[in-house]
Amino acid sequence: MPTVELPAGPIDYTDTGSGPVIVFGHGLLMNGNLWRDVIPLLDGYRCIAPTWPLGAHRRPMNADAALDHAGVSRIIADFLDALDLFEVALVLNDWGGGQFIVSERRHDRIGRLVLASCEAYDNFPPKPARPGVALCRLPGGPALFMQLTRTPMFRRGKQAYGGLAKRGIDDALLDEWFAPGLRDADIRRDLKKFATGTPSREVLDDWHREVVTFDRPVLLLWASEDRMMPVEHARRMAHEFSNAKLVEVDDAWTLLPLDQPERVAVELDLFITAH
C-alpha cells in the first residue's frame, strides 16, 4: 500500500484505475476499505481511498499534528496537493468534517463534492457517539473505549456500529478497523485528539455557512432510513448549496458503501458524467 508523508504525518492510501479522480473518505475507526465493494464498479475512474487519522490508521501521526475537524480537513488538502490532483470528486461518508476544506479555504482542487449520509450542521458527532467522546476525554478513556470494540454490544448494538449498516458489518472488517487502536498507544492518542476535537455549535454554524458557499456541483447522496445522519439535513442542504442534487437511497443506513454499493457506484458515475 502506498504512503505519502504529509506535514502532519503519514497517510496510507489505495490508488486504482485511471480517469476522473474520486477521493473517498470514511468515518471514525474506519479505513479506506469502507469502499472495497464500490471501487471495482467504477471502471473509467481513478479511485483513491486514503485512510485518514481517525483511529484506524496503521501508523501514528506526528505528535504535534492538529487532528480536530478543521485539522483533518487540512490534511485532506495537503494530501491532494502531495498527489497533485485536480478536479477531484471528494466523497464523504459518515464523517462529514472533510467539507470544512471549504471553510478552511483549501478547496481549489475540488471540482465536485459528494456528501453521502454524513455529519452536517451540529450533528458532530451524532448523539449515539457522544458517550464514547465523553469517555475519550477521561484519563485512560481511549484505551477503555478501544476495549469496548471487542464486545458484541459495540459491534452489533444499534446505538453503536450495529446501527451504521443495515446489513451489518462483518467481523473481519471490524477487526481490521479496530486493530490499530487496540495495539498502539500513539494511535489512541490520535483518536483522542480527533474524538474530542469538535468545536462549539457556534463555530460549527459559522463553518457551515462557509461550506454552503461552495458553488461547484454537489451530490447529496443520502440513506432515507439513516439512524445517525438525518435525511432532513440533506433536504435542507439541497436548498442551501447553489448547485446541488439530492438522491435518497432506500434500504440502507449510514454506510451506503456497504449497504448499497451498486447504487452508490451508479449515482457517482451519473453525477460525475453529468458535471
What strand order characterises the main sheet?
1-2-4-3-5-6-7-8
Which of globular, elongated, flat, extended, rod-shaped describes the shape? globular
Strand content: 15-25%
Query: What's the helix-strand series?
Result: EEEEHEHEHHHHHHEHEHH
Tell me the count of domains: 1
**Mind telling me the CATH class?**
Alpha Beta
Write down how many β-strands occur, each being a DSSP E stretch of 2 or more residues.
8
> Whole-number average pLDDT?
98
Gap from first CA to last CA? 31 Å
Unreliable runs: none
Largest sheet: 8 strands, mixed
Computed structural class: alpha/beta
CATH architecture: 3-Layer(aba) Sandwich
CATH homologous superfamily label: Alpha/Beta hydrolase fold, catalytic domain
Percent range of helical residues? 25-40%
CATH topology: Rossmann fold
Tally of helical runs: 11
Radius of gyration: 17 Å
Organism: Gordonia malaquae NBRC 108250
Keywords: Hydrolase
Protein name: Putative hydrolase
GO molecular function: hydrolase activity
What does this molecule look like?
There is one protein chain. The protein is an alpha/beta fold. The protein has a single domain (3-274), classed as Alpha/Beta hydrolase fold, catalytic domain (Rossmann fold, 3-Layer(aba) Sandwich), CATH 3.40.50.1820. Helices cover 37% and strands 18% of the residues. The protein contains eleven helices and eight strands. The protein has helices at 69-82, 100-103, 130-136, 141-148, 152-156, 171-183, 185-195, 201-211, 231-240, 256-259, 261-274, and strands at residues 3-6, 9-16, 21-24, 46-50, 88-94, 110-118, 218-223, 244-249. An eight-stranded mixed beta sheet has the order 1-2-4-3-5-6-7-8, with helices on both faces. It is globular and about 50 Å long. The relative contact order is 0.16. The mean pLDDT is 98.
